[in-house]
Amino acid sequence: xxxxxxxxxxxxxxxxxxxxxxxxxxxxxxxxxxxxxxxxxxxxxxxxxxxxxxxxxxxxxxxxxxxxxxxxxxxxxxxxxxxxxxxxxxxxxxxxxxxxxxxxxxxxxxxxxxxxxxxxxxxxxxxxxxxxxxxxxxxx
Length: 140
Ligand SMILES: [Zn+2]
Description:
The chain is mainly beta. It has one domain (13-135): CATH 2.40.50.840. It is 9% helix and 39% strand. The chain has a five-stranded mixed barrel. It has a three-stranded antiparallel beta sheet with strand order 2-1-3, covered by helices on one side. It is globular. The termini are far apart. The mean pLDDT is 92. Bound molecules: zinc ion. Zinc ion (ZN) binds at residues 33, 35-36, 38, 47, 49-50, 52.
């Protein structure tokens, strides 16, 4: 009998640069326009505000609010079966971009749009990290 394991994606192109920057910094990074200061995600070749190509990946605070969420009561992935029902959150970072994260320490009964959360990373490979949304207590 095989042991279930969660798949680790292998991002490419700008997604790979985004994940490598986040893994190297050991904290969530977002693409940041060096001309006008606009933060953006997913990564792009040109700033959506000023069209500059001077884009870099800089650290964000991780402070966010719950923009939206879903509760999964069923999964076809054996690795996730012990965790159902689980919450997946669309987090809006205080810098502006939104990122999808799995909830940790937030139950389906507790989750609410607008609640303060923090986004923390878990490095899964030199090229990939997963994002966890946790209750905001302890946000630096
Ligand atoms: Zn810009």
